[in-house]
Design a protein that fits this description.
Elements: H1 3-12, E1 23-27, E2 32-40, E3 44-48, E4 53-57, E5 61-66, E6 71-74, E7 81-82, H2 103-110, E8 114-119, E9 122-128, E10 134-137, H3 139-142, E11 149-156, E12 159-165, E13 168-174, E14 179-184, E15 194-195, E16 208-213, E17 222-235, E18 238-243, E19 255-258, E20 263-270, E21 278-282, H4 283-291, H5 314-322
Antiparallel strand pairs: 1-2, 1-5, 2-3, 3-4, 5-6, 7-15, 8-9, 8-11, 9-10, 10-14, 11-12, 13-14, 16-17, 16-19, 17-18, 18-21, 19-20, 20-21
Length: 323
């Protein structure tokens, strides 16, 4: 018995449930589960069907109708580029029911969620994980920096319109896995387009992938495609996705997508003396970083926090030497 049919069979046994006041979870295949939603997690919805509690994977959900506000809310399974009016979650998983036909179509849908991250010391790429301006990049892109700007590209009348945001806060960092979580805090910032996180565990060698980023700093919106060479390449004690998609300086922190438009990795390095030897951090590590972001919080008020101290200004060093 399929998961969907099994869930519906369980739901039908709940004869005493008041359907008029219940929530409805619509599943693929025109099935549905009716009950009271207890909690919504990034990867699943927990629903009370009267005599038991079911955990419904988001990958099986088409949409949710809640009796409390009679509002049908789209989930991450409807499109790789999520609607800014989707339910409030910190990040989203899943993807479209049917993948786009090719990379070109996917780039049109998800390209606006990929950004350029600049600091006085260099630049890299990044991508939004929700509409409130939270984005992922590499730690080494912002390492030792506090002055950060983010360039966002929007489609306006068939052209890309560049917008620069300068009020950017470091939310959390993980130096050992080379990840950083930033947030745009400009007062007039709109809601941002964002992408969903897929599964690097589901990849196999030979799967097609593509990257969007700004290699060399001046080649914005560059798209490169390739395949997954291996998903368990060990380098310095860490496992990486190895890909033939071209990764260059400036791509660091950008997303590596599967052919469903889901992020499966964060590009972060390449072997300089070879071609087609790019590497990305598996998205499962990104999810873990986001789920435990409080443990990686960047705070200058907490000496035990996982941030690195910046060197004091030269004038303070000189003043201390004189004293």
């Amino acid at each position: 018995m399929s998961l969907n049919k099994h869930l519906v069979w369980l739901a039908l046994l709940c004869c005493g449930l008041n359907a008029a006041s219940a929530d409805t979870i619509h599943l693929r295949g025109n099935d549905a589960v009716t009950g009271k939603i207890l909690t919504e997690k990034p990867d699943a919805v927990v629903v009370d069907v009267g005599y038991t509690v079911l955990v419904v994977p988001r990958s099986d959900i088409v949409n949710i109708s809640q009796a409390s506000n009679a509002l049908t809310r789209l989930t991450a399974t409807t499109s790789p580029l999520l609607n800014v009016n989707a339910p409030a979650q910190f990040y989203y998983t899943g993807g479209p029911a049917v993948a786009a036909s090719d990379v070109r179509d996917l780039v049109k849908q998800i390209g606006e969620a990929v950004v350029q991250v600049r600091t006085p010391g260099g630049l890299g790429s990044g991508f939004f994980i929700n509409a409130d301006g939270y984005l992922i990049t590499n730690f080494h892109v912002i390492e030792g920096e506090t002055e950060i700007t983010v360039e966002v590209y929007r489609h306006v009348e068939g052209q890309l319109d560049r917008e620069i945001y300068r009020q950017v806060r470091i939310v959390a960092i993980n130096k050992f896995q080379d990840l950083a979580l930033l947030k745009i805090e400009d007062k007039n910032a709109p809601k941002f387009k964002y992408v969903s996180l897929g599964s690097s565990d589901a990849l196999t060698a030979g799967d097609s992938v593509f990257a969007i980023g700004s290699p060399m700093g001046f080649l914005e919106r560059t798209v490169t495609s390739g395949i997954v060479s291996t998903k368990t390449r060990e380098l310095e004690g860490q496992l990486y996705l190895q890909t033939t998609a071209q990764i260059n300086p400036g791509n660091s922190g950008g997303p590596l997508f599967n052919m469903a438009g889901q992020v499966v990795g964060v590009t972060n390095m390449k072997i300089m003396f070879g071609e087609g030897l790019g590497f990305a951090i598996p998205v499962e590590l990104v999810k873990n970083f986001l789920d435990h972001r409080d443990a990686f919080a960047y705070s200058t008020d907490n000496p035990s926090g996982p941030y690195r101290y910046l060197p004091p200004p030269n004038n303070l060093i000189q003043k201390a030497a004189k004293e």
